[in-house]
Design goal:
It is a single chain. This protein has about 180 residues and is mainly alpha-helical. The chain has one domain. It contains 3 helices and no strands. It is rod-shaped and about 125 Å long. It starts with a helix and ends with a helix. The relative contact order is 0.13.
Length: about 180
Amino acid sequence: MKADDTAGQARKGLFDSVTGKAKEMFGAISGNSSLTSEGQLQQRQAQDRKEANSTQSLADAQADEAAQDLAQARNEGAQRRTGAERQAAGRTSEVRAEQQTERQQAEQQQRQETSAGQAGEQFHADAQVRAAAAERVDKEASATRYAEQAAGKHERVEADADHAEAQSVQARREAEKLTRKEGLE
């Protein structure tokens, strides 16, 4: 509801309340029970309008707050996702650089051992290459788990934001239903 509309509704409610009270008093003084009843009804309608306006204002404020919370949650989720992607990319680059270094070292050691013709050292080099490959696989798995966890957190933040937005829509619908019920639109 707009501020001008809210102020207009408040003025109309105050006018109806004062008018209703005047009718009630004049009806009581003049002995006109119909006028007294009409005044009381007009006062009740003014009170109902006031309550509906309050409910609508509260719903509008909650909707605005939920929209702000949603925007903030989406922004935080995007920032976290970007951070997680950067960390995952950085870790992947580190792992690749380590793999390349280990591969070069293993190849160099293998060349040295091959030229020396020592079978035992060759076995040792092969073991080192296998160990380096296993370590690489472990690091890649760790980087993948970290990226998956970050994506999961992002999905939960978005789900929370969607839930807040749904609550906001529900509150607005309830306020509109009350407004229609009271004939204020």
